[in-house]
Design goal:
single chain; 122 residues; 4-stranded antiparallel beta sheet; two-stranded antiparallel ribbon; 5 helices
């Protein structure tokens, strides 16, 4: 997964641009991950997951939920969780899906979060 971080030096808001297919992680991270304490807490939970002290991590944010297990991380917009029976994202709507749901391997996710923490602290 490729990413690029930027910071608005007036508002101190950090932003991220991610490779195609991972855009939902960018929206989620920009909304939820601005506080260093929050990022450090997430990383601590991932360590527990890697040590097999816990089996998964679930975080519910304002618009997205994060689900992490031993193999992968996934962000899902709450609109998908609320309307699962009604949604059939095929054809032209599949591109929109990239902005509201994404998944990646645990190692890629960990690299993203560790790099994000370093950027936000700096």
């Amino acid at each position: 997964m490729e990413f690029e971080f930027r910071k608005d030096f007036i508002s101190e808001q950090a932003t991220v641009k991610l490779s195609m297919g991972h855009e939902a992680f960018a929206t989620w991270l920009e909304q939820e991950g601005q506080a260093v304490d929050w990022i450090e807490d997430l990383l601590a939970k991932i360590v527990l997951l890697q040590q097999r002290a816990i089996t998964d991590v679930k975080l519910t944010g304002s618009e997205f939920s994060l689900l992490v297990n031993q193999d992968e991380a996934q962000v899902i917009n709450h609109s998908l969780l609320n309307n699962q029976d009604e949604i059939d994202l095929e054809g032209d709507l599949a591109f929109y899906d990239l902005e509201i749901q994404a998944s990646c391997g645990l190692e890629d996710f960990l690299n993203l979060i560790e790099s994000w923490l370093e950027f936000v602290q700096g």
